[in-house]
Write a structure and sequence with these properties.
about 90 residues; mainly alpha; 2 helices; rod-shaped; signal
Length: about 90
Amino acid sequence: MNQKQTLAMLFSSVALLSGCGGGSDAPAPPPPPTAATDAIPGDAGTTAAKFKSYLVDLSADTPDTKEALDVSTFSPKQDDDTEPEPVN
């Protein structure tokens, strides 16, 4: 009799706990945007306007505790047929 009660309690507790394992249908939150000082975005070197936008974002961020960026592989596009953009 004791074994039957133990098995009944075991199966009922498993049945109750299995109903609690569901997740929500809400989508996962998007990852936080990459800070300008974490890495140079891939599209920053495609046009002068995007490069200027990256530099503006970089100047707005004031990290005193981050390491320097590796710019050895970064090569911004250099247009010969466009006028220079003013720097504000």
